[in-house]
Protein 1
Amino acid sequence: MQETISPSEIKGTITAPASKSAMQRACAAALLKGGKTVLHNPGISNDDEAALDIIQQLGASVEKKEDTIVIHSNGVKPSSNEINCGESGLSVRMFTPIAALSAEPITVSGRGSLVKRPLSFFTEVLPQLSVRCDSKEGFLPLHIKGPLQPKDIEVDGSLSSQFLTGLLFAYSAAGTRNVTITVRNLNSKPYIDLTLQVMKDFGLLLPINNNYESFFFPGKPITQSTNKPINYTVEADWSGAAFLLVAGAIAGDIIVKGLDVFSTQADKAILQPLMQCGVNISVESEQIHIRKTALKPFHFNATDCPDLFPPLVALAAYCDGTSVIEGVHRLTHKESNRAQTLQEEFGKMGVEITFQDDLMMIKGGGIIKGASVHSRHDHRIAMACAVAALGADGEVIIEQADAVNKSYPQFWEHLRYLTNHE
């Protein structure tokens, strides 16, 4: 699929999409909680669909209604010997330990970029928890056989916090008592906050968080599980909304609704560099109003929110000077090598990006050129190029634009609405 973005001003009011980070965690929690769960404002992205498919393969039933999804579960009782995680990094890292709760042998598979993501974490850690785990030299497919037996364990959190998310869910569901997960070098702590919040919302057994260095499951539950149906509203997505907010800063006058300013989502941090830039922004409880204005360069540490790199590169391109983003090491194992991809694709539009150790430096303030770019099958690259194109000197053609379906399938529809809004 190809999309052509013409230089445009945008105007209007738009509601941010549902958070796939919250949606997928809610699917896991609904499976483990058992009983009936009703998800309101459910996500519709490819990653969300992958999570729904996985919990069905692990024994849950899923009924889609007009604006809700009803899930019934009796815990992890696989109906299939395989779970396919699509291209979802969160799903493979979160659901593998959950699937390992079963004594049944299960193959964990995926497709596209997911088969290139390293998963040696599991071949190192799961055998310590009595789970047999074989892989294709550290990559998918994984062949696992539990049941997982929680024990005191130390893990490395430097590659992704999503591995820890999976262990926290699995330990909780196993009825763990008096055991500790010790974590070294944990990145993306806000995503662990989101995991713990979802666990709390569903009444799952909560660990005691010791400054993100260890997670202790006590002898007695902190929260008491009940059999009452769960009604859970999936919050709006700060990751997807970041592109809308940047679009408003460089090309428009828009209102983005639905975002929770008290959210634990890591990408809520987009507000910090926007404010550093001197953007005209009004943050209210129900909406964020943002208008085009002259922008100053910014310096931002994205180590805990690496998904913000693509929208921040688009923002930096319009800042009058060189902006600096820290945390480049977090970009290697995404849908693409995002650091290199951003440098190459934005380079086609005349934006100079250089690197120094863990820093990305974006030289802004020049003319953004019309060009033909490629998403590299990476949803956030496609959206970043589209946003940057709004102020270009000509059309920007984006190849493989359907990559946005991974996280924000309504993106092109929303962008056209804002571009054509009267």
Protein 2
Amino acid sequence: MARILIVDDHANDRYLLRTVLEAAGHSVTESVNGREALALARADPPDLVVSDVLMPELDGFGLCHEWHKNPLLAKIPFVFYSANYVKPDEERFARAAGAALFLQKPLAPEALEDAFAKLVGAERTAPRTLPEGEFAARHQDAVNRKLLEQIETLKTTQRGVIDLVSRLVEARDPYTAGHERRVGALAAGIGVELGFDENRCEGLRFAGQVHDVGKVSLPAEILVKPGRLTNWEYELVKSHTTVGHDLLAHLDFPWPLADVVRHHHERIDGSGYPDGLAGEAIGIEARIVGVADVVESMVSHRPYRPALGIEAALAELERGAGTHYDALAVAACRRLFRERDFRLPD
């Protein structure tokens, strides 16, 4: 059986691969980046190295290039094992850098074992590798493409999580179905009107979609109550801001979603909740979502009153501009409806 070096910065991926290889009788050594792997291999050369692509310190392409510059290691088969879709140009670059194989995660144990068995022990000459200048140029291009792929994958996952959270809130309160989505659309529109870039506007849309996530903790009978809430019930409803914040605080988003959820009911004069923040102590995203929330709530039907209409909503914003609501956000919202013919989605 072979001595195999695994190089991957993800502990779960190393564990899964190690389990498969050890079950097949191989001896496994692990490394978390290319520099560490080179040091381990120089001290005790393995029979095969299996490496991820994107890693800190020295990534997989860089490791492969350095690996084949070392006469002690150059004849040892180098295999890439990557989670991203393997594009033909990436595989060609990997082979030009000296790799024997470029495999895509996950592979069935039998397929992995078959691929490795054909490499271990086979006669192999040191491959010709790219000159330094050509490698450097192609390396940067390949890594940039991989990073963009990972960013897009992460964004897709984040969008899925946010959509799920929004649907959970709507399922708890069917009388406000679509509220989160419409608040998000209006908040993003206000962001565009204020000159925010595309990423920041996307964050506003997502913040609107989850701003009431804390309501999942409230009794359904309070959410759909047709009459006036008691003082105790109102205090309970107010807790949705802190509950929602706590639900999102430990999730890694590139936008301040948890802060928006906590502070979208704060008011410029300090009269809001839960923290009594005032002025610019309230994040701009929370101020914008707060304005969008007021508008959507007033133009939609609620169990305790009929829809009041957009003119009533804009009049409320204008009365509270600079005291309850951010004046710039109010002005932008007013322009959207009165000058840009903005319409809330159905």
